[in-house]
Amino acid sequence: MDALIGKTPEELKALAKDLGLPAFTGGQLARWLYVRRAVSLDEMTDISKAGRELLAQHYTVGTLRPSLTLTSRDGTEKYLFDVGATEDGAMGGIEAVMIPDQDRNTLCVSSQAGCKMGCKFCMTGRQGFHGNLTAAEILGQILSVDRIHPLSNIVFMGMGEPLDNWPEVRRAIDVLTAPWGFAWSPKRITLSTIGVMPRLREFLDESRCHLAVSLHNPFPQERLEMMKVEKAWPVTEIVRLIKQYDFTGQRRVSFEYTMFAGWNDTPRHAAALARLLRGLECRVNLIRFHRIPDFPYGTSSEKTMTAFRDMLTDAGVTCTIRASRGEDILAACGMLAGQKQ
Ligand code: SF4
After folding, report:
1. Position 334 in a domain
2. 319 lines ligand 1 (CB under 6 A)
3. Domain limits for position 25
4. Residues of the chain whose pLDDT is less than 70?
5. Could you tell me if 79 and 34 lie in one domain?
6. Which of the residues 81, 133, 204, 217 has the least number of beta carbons within 10 Å of its own beta carbon?
7. Which pLDDT value is given to residue 340?
8. Which pLDDT score is estimated for 337?
9. Which of 13, 28, 60 is the last residue of a domain?
């Protein structure tokens, strides 16, 4: 059955009319869904009982509930939702991770079940691709966690490449930011991508959300070893495109750089990275690599990461070493695999 969450007021009005209900039912539905956050049609008491019964024959609200919640020693929480699960167990569901930090609760949401991008260092990439999530399934993760921990920020950094599912991600962002929706500021939302060029352009033109780019290596041949996307959309082209947009005001761009011992953590890499980003108002986040099975590289040492950060800082690039969160519950970057075990 189709979900109501994710639809615009116009679409809600049209579906109400199609069912023979008054057109203003569309406005009532939008208020119940996005302002009052109803989880069932029964709650929508200003819609007639007959109207609610008719709606229930064709639609669900689209609420999600986690089937499993794991809490890390550091307070990070990981939620498993039985969305996109496959019968053979290759895909056990999708995951969202809530990271509390002082007065902020950030939710890392998934946009796809699995991923087709195949980055070699990523557990999600190893799962293969099992389908795009709908806007309702994306918003369902947010609404369900927001009820437990009121959220301050959203990052599209969970399972999947959000720009490979841009129509549904854009719809979810529209609902989050529209005055008739959750009315969030776009500054509360960050989309993370490995660089799907045509969709990136649309994202930059059509939204005001922050951008994070998974860069990981400034040298094309080396990046290609781990990220096959480099062949279609080289990171140099991605950076050139980003430089055409204004990030000197409220909107921010950051570059994620996971550090692998001996692969991308040398002074040669730091110098090339600084050259690549020269002239762009941005931040580089250095991320500790969390070891995964059957992978040739280990984690860069603390000393190497600090030296790398200092080299970038000296070259005029703002750079921080990201605190690692949720490693004990496999919730850290690159560890999401959607498996109950
Ligand atoms: Fe997909 Fe992102 Fe993992 Fe690459 S790093 S395989 S784009 S989820």
Report:
1. no
2. no
3. 2-60
4. 332-333, 339-341
5. no
6. 204
7. 55
8. 74
9. 60
CA distance 40 to 46: 13
pLDDT in tens, 114-168: 999 999 999 888 889 999 999 999 999 999 999 999 999 999 999 999 999 999 9
CB 285 within 8 A of CB 256: yes
Which residues lie below 8 Å from residue 20, measured CB to CB, with a gap of 6+?
54
The predicted-structure confidence for 45-70, as pLDDT tens digits, reads as follows 999 999 999 999 999 999 899 999 99
112 in the same domain as 54: no
Atom of ligand 1 nearest to the CA of 118: 6
Burial of 100 (0-12, 13-18, 19+ CB in 10 A): middle
Q: Say yes or no: CB of residue 195 within 6 Å of ligand 1.
A: no
3-state secondary structure of 309: helix
Q: Whose CA is nearest to atom 7 of ligand 1?
A: 161
* Residue-level pLDDT at 69: 95
Q: Is the dihedral of CA 197, 335, 207, 236 positive or negative?
A: negative
CATH classification at residue 36? 1.10.150.530
Active site residues: 95, 333
CB-side neighbour CA atoms (13 Å) of 121: 29
CA of 264 to the centre of ligand 1 (A): 18
Query: With a 6 A CB cut-off, is 333 part of the ligand 1 pocket?
Result: no
User: For residue 277, what are the CA distances in angstroms to 132, 220, 253, 272, 309?
Assistant: 32, 15, 11, 9, 14
With beta carbons less than 8 A apart as the criterion, state whether 281 and 247 touch. Answer: yes
Q: State whether the beta carbon of 125 lies less than 6 angstroms from ligand 1.
A: yes
